[in-house]
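Same chain as my last thread, 120 residues:
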Amino acid sequence: MKTMFPAAAAVAVLFAAGIPAAHAQSGSDSLLRNQSRVINQAVGTQARQGTKPQAGGSTATVAARAVNLRAQPGQAAPVIGVLPQGTQLTVTGPAEGTWTPVEHQGRTGYVVTSLLTPDR
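reply #2:
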């Protein structure tokens, strides 16, 4: 049995039911629009829930097994420390792209935002 994409499966079902191809195509387009709408709503909800650490004085915890603390925001920046999972950090400012400025035990640097969990 072949695996089909959802839109192709919808067209195949409509075609088998005797619905003209023009209507089948608009049905699959509608299905794709609905799927996109649902995904966009979910992503928007996630963003509104504040999944990234807040700026200035808030705290966040390392969620990954270990993360690199870098001197500047960027993959090419020197690593100045490695922080294990569960390490609590002080967020020192707003995120810069995908990087959050943090402080831990007197060291300041940047950590990839998606590897942190904001503390409540």
